[in-house]
Design brief:
The protein is 57% helix and 5% strand. It has 583 residues and is mostly helical. The strands form 3 sheets. A 4-stranded mixed β-sheet has the order 5-6-8-7. A hairpin with a 2-residue loop joins strand 7 and strand 8. It is elongated, with a radius of gyration of 27 Å. The N and C termini lie far apart (95 Å). 42% of the residues are buried.
Amino acid sequence: MAATDIYNSFTSLTKKNKSSTIFWLTLSIAVVIVYSAIAILPAFQHQYIIQDDARQHIFWMQRFVDHQLFPKDLITDYFESISPPGYKAFYQILAIIGINPILASKILPVLLGIMTTVYCFGICVEILPIPLTGFIGTLLLNQGLWLGDDLLSATSRAFLYPFFFAFTYYLLKRALFPCLIFLALLGLFYPGFVLISVGILILPIFKFHNGLLRLSRERSDYLFCGLGILVAFGSLLPYFLDASQFSPLMTVKEARTLPEFLSSGRMSFFHDENPWRFWFSASRAGLRISFNPPIVFLGLFLPLLLQLKARFPLVQQVRENISTLTHLIITSLFLFFAAHILLFKLYLPSRFTVHSSKIILALATAIALTLILDAILNTSRKRRILGIFTTVIVGTFIVFYPNIIWKNNFPSNSYVVGQTTGLYQFLQKYPKDTLIASLLGEANNIPSFAQRPILVGSEYAIAYHIGYYRQLRQRLADLIRAHYSPDLADTQNLIQKYGVDFLLVEKGVFTPEYITKNKWLRQYLSPKLPDDMLAKLMRETLESLQKGTLPALSKLVQECTTFNAGESMLLDAKCIVKKINLN
């Protein structure tokens, strides 16, 4: 085949026409179906399995199936209270029509991934009308998303991507009604990102002309902005009107007094010893610009490519609406710093940049690669064949290299498998208000798999609302005393104060090594906040164990064990109280 024929055959798939658009869109959808199917497959290979974040944000929705579950439970009530209303209503509707929320959370990632892909493809083609750009953009975006658990979690943040892409697509198409619909949905499902969307609506009003800032003369800019602000405010109104029983929010002053917010804490936020980490890479405080997959670094060079019109002739087809990416950058950075200034009132600063960076870099890289590909294909005839084959090789590498580099870690698998199936089945035989107290990590699985409440759990130790976290900290302090005190009166106090029915322990829990190796407990051993109540208690407890003091509860393990689950033992609270009274 002649070089010209190869060139014509290859480039026919990059031109915008109906058949080319259908081809690349279908291929994009096929890729996300493959990625998502591989990702959710483990969810159906075990009876007791759930995505990690779903243990916090979806477990409580079992109340939609059985209203008697978790009665007056602090942890369940709290996580229900902080769930966005649209997200909550969506799962409730599914439960009403007979779809269990936990089952739904295992299937939804596929549908959310397809919706995200379709709208991402549309945005790419709106900015640069080359269908290949849409394929590259969706491919890179999906690789980034499935390397993490944003979609896989099926929590409220999983809805951010399809709704934000839909909002942006209709904004670029200047379709007012669907744009406002998805803006409202974004506010009802993931309120933090509706603020970014409002910023994207406001910034087009201000335009630079001949180096001067001027107001837009486009009536539609004001229409979209004005109505968008009203819709956004309406979607956020439930948050303003709902006075949470767990208020007030944590303040910076109080957070700095808690070990949980130190760099080694459960809610690590302050990294005073490492300012670079604090501002750039910390999971909650930092910018967290995501360069996954690594090829999205190329997106940083898009502004340079756009200036080299002679070398990259396709730049002429890049539309002015590419400014939406600039608006997204400006708004995200503005809200990032605003979140630091108003700390915890806008939730976490990183939430305004980590998602935006994935979107911006995927789209920018798609455009940049398209410009480069076009430049290669428009070289002299002698170099076309080499350019085409180089492009095919590079393209194949982009498609398959996540599986080569990350192997079994792509797509991400963040599912948690319950290891003590007999324990879950045993607890389900008891009343639905049966309360289990434990310091073990296994306790975090009990609400999801046994549908029974727990006193405390590391997964549920979220410290943003003082009304909730003070109660949880007090519970933890009482549980530590009940476990390690040489006086059984502390154990009896815990049982009577909270109505505990069972205590879940294991052989090693009564040793000092358990405390020093347990990430949740050892955060309280930090010397930085010696006056904290839990820090004092934890140090005293560790010192007591290191001196050889035997916890009183450990003496009753053999007599009061009502169920053995491997290394774990379930102690009957009634048996413990009975033994105490006999003494």
